[in-house]
Amino acid sequence: MRSLTRAEARERSSLVTVMSYAAELDLDRGAEVFGSRGTIHFACASPGADSWVDLRAREIESITLNGVRLDPATVVGGRLPLPGLEEDNELIVVATMAYSHDGQGLHRATDPADGQDYVYGHLFLDAAPSVFVCFDQPDLKAPYDLRVRTPHDWTVIGNGAATRTGPGEWALATTKPLATYFVTVCAGPYVSVRDEHDGIPLGLHARASLRGPLERHAAEMFQITKRSFDYFHGLFAIRYPFGEYHQVFVPEFNAGAMENPGCVTIRDQYLFRGAATRDELLGRANTIAHEMSHMWFGDLVTMRWWDDLWLNESFAEYMSHRCLVAATDYTDAWVDSSIVRKVWGYGAERSPSTHPVAGVDALDAQSALQNFDGISYAKGAAVLRQLIAYVGDGPFITGVRAYLAEHSYGNGTLAEFLGAIEAASGVDLEAWAAGWLLTAGRDTISVDLDEHNGVIGSAVVIRQTPAQHPADRPHAFDVAGYTDGAEGRGPP
Ligand SMILES: [Zn+2]
Fold first, then answer.
1. What domains, with CATH codes, occur in the chain?
2. Is 244 a catalytic site residue?
3. CA of 320 to the centre of ligand 1 (A)
């Protein structure tokens, strides 16, 4: 299966505009496969041109483009050629898809506690075509209409509010424009705890055998959720745009959590069965705030291409800690950032595979994950803190708000993000970005005290930059001092 290249994505998004997606998923066909009927309405900027759509089916029953049947045998390597496009097009694909068991695509798991099956979608980074036919790239967004058929005792949760329309039949509300990798459906005999905050319906869900831990932890998780909503509403000055907000604790999850708009999936190890340490609770609260910050930065405004994935994660890593300190009882979250998260970044920085935070080409979608490590999350977040120290918090937030407002329901790039910060602060960031984002390595900062007879004459900050990664990084920081108890005396 060939990974989509950046050049192919650029060419396709210049040609294709997706108007809407509709998908009917039949999850009542046993444990191996599900039915998928996908309809795409899309425009073509150059009628007569050819393109292709992504499709990874077990079996294809039929393909219809603008009323004309296409031969399923033309699908090669997960790509269905679309010959001779019109200005407005309708593609309908009826197919049988396979459930996954590696956490990518529509994952199906059996709970060993009671033998019940659970399904959830995890389409990051390029698994969407294994669930429905689509133009699978982050800058071709469109609204989704999903209908789901399930066994009668199942519950369905997804990006749009789910309504049971009949026995085992569910309709999900039309979503705002979403990137393909944000679409999810969670289905199974999930148990739920519901609440509401500031007009936003809230849900927490888990498999039935975890009902006890779910109910025990619900109050704490709802409190973090509500405070985070209040905080981000104030900070970003844009109301949460995706309707209901569900957090689904799913089994066999291959990551920490995923920021699907309106339906965050979280590994169910976070529903601690026994006593949990404060550190574990902080980690979960951090994940809740991290995923929520993505609703704005990531979901409402999405990277144009995968080479900006680091910015998505650095931003969320930074914002989650900021939110915990400002709005929750975890006021020491920056300590966690410094002694747990940043160590991860330092470790990656010291290894031979170190790389700049940004500017590493992701020539195809899969290669975006090769450099995805502690530098992408922890160092990136630390660099954003340095940026804030450099331009000031007020201008930084003004720039973030402008960036989010300008690119809502669309896409943005690192250059556009930095441009918004430059416009808000009046600070030229070209040299800053070259030193901090485009050069690997870290400076060593030390303070040299000029001390005579117990009196500090002056303090000189010394900066050493690694020879193998030369950079001229501007630093903005405070220097504080302390003594061993004796009265300290600074320079007159
Ligand atoms: Zn994230």
1. 1-189 (2.60.40.1730), 194-296 (1.10.390.10), 306-436 (1.10.390.10)
2. no
3. 10
